[in-house]
Amino acid sequence: NDIVSVIVSQYAESLVYGAILDAKTSEHSSSANAMSSASDNADEIISDLELQYNRARQAAITTEITEITGDMTAQE
Prior knowledge:
97% helix; mainly alpha; 1 helix; single chain
C-alpha cells in the first residue's frame, strides 16, 4: 500500500512537471516566432527605406546634372 502511494505521488508530480515544461516550451516557441517576425519586418522596412533613399539620391543627381547641362547650354 505504501508503494502504491509513493508511485501515485511520483506519477502526479511527473504529470504536473510535464505540464509546466510544455507551457514553458510553448512560451519560448511563441517568443522566438515573435522575434523572428519582428526581425523579418525590420529587414523589409530597411529594404524599403534603402530603395526610397537611393531613388531620392538618384533624382537629386539627375536634377543636378540637368541644371549643369542647362547652364552650359545657356552660356553658349
